[in-house]
């Protein structure tokens, strides 16, 4: 359009090119920073096309399930073919995203609903652990399938561990046969290192324990695990995850005793596991005894109370006296801060041990206990160099205090000592041993004359 003068009329709108320029800041009291936050002007009607890689793919486990089940149906029960199919499918299907669905199918034949049931309206396959034969050989073959799959796609390791933890929590939703197969498979996978023993935490679920499901499952699991490895390897795996002292938690609180555990698993054919737990319990009881003993000594409890407590623990946990005297010795020696000077530590040791002689004497009523104490003294004096010259003085003190007697001392001197500091300590004891022998001969002579 033209104006009255014939010149073109100026457009009221700002040209597009200029609309893209940022206007200079206005001194209107509004800060420049606020202007920066305002939306930049854009061309009217402009559309932005979303890049394909930025589009979020819809989560569709059903479609993934259909692809896997179709493939498994085609491979049939040939597990070598199953392993090859799974290996090849990982390049086309999103295993990372649908790991849970994948493992549900391989174990149960389809996607599991909460509680461990299979949905009725979902596809399912018989090429799975739960539909297989219930024997160890078949479960070993399935373990190889999982092994190969996880070695090929390392990122599935964590997902598989989570899957097994979930399956263990779902045990009540499975049949007895399905539980047995899962237990055997888990045992094999624990043995070959595909699974970590921390997954056993799921078995301590209160409901599973209360209904006896955990203990029954553990029997099958440990049988297959020990069949693949020995009890020492199993124990090492349990120790790594601090599970070695928790096995009795497979039973309700009122049945958590060594006796009940031993009876249950021995009758189930797992004597080696029963013995392992018994030994662990004894070790734990010994540690607890030493800890409590040190606390009682530091409090200055009367010896009669300490002796009574120790004897009760001996009876309760079946701890033999030779073991107890070692614990008492260690506790006595740990209650004092020793002088660093060799010429002073012997005097300090004699004074300290003289005070504790009645306590030590209470647990050297057997010859083997006395010999054990002698060996403990020898090892301590060797390991703590300031005590090297104090060995003979300690032995003589204990002889006079009737903690030790002639026969164990002579036996130690003759052939029952250990190699640590042997030459030094035997030399120290030479004169005292000769005196003991002479005293013994004189006693025998007096006895003969009396007859």
Automatic annotation (TrEMBL):
InterPro entries: ARM-type_fold (IPR016024), eIF5-mimic_regulator (IPR051245), HEAT_5MP1_2 (IPR057397), W2_5MP1/2 (IPR043510), W2_domain (IPR003307). Residues 1-56 are annotated as: Disordered. Residues 279-446 form the W2 domain. Keywords: Activator, Transcription, Transcription regulation, Translation regulation. It comes from Pan paniscus (Pygmy chimpanzee). Residues 28-47 have a biased composition (Polar residues). GO terms for biological process: regulation of translational initiation. Coiled coil: none annotated. PANTHER family: BASIC LEUCINE ZIPPER AND W2 DOMAIN-CONTAINING PROTEIN, EIF5-MIMIC PROTEIN 2. CDD domains: W2_eIF5C_like. GO terms for cellular component: cytoplasm; membrane. The keyword Transmembrane helix does not apply. The lineage of its organism: Eukaryota, Metazoa, Chordata, Craniata, Vertebrata. Signal peptide: none annotated. This is Basic leucine zipper and W2 domains 1. The keyword Transcription regulation applies. Belongs to the BZW family. It comes from the Eukaryota.
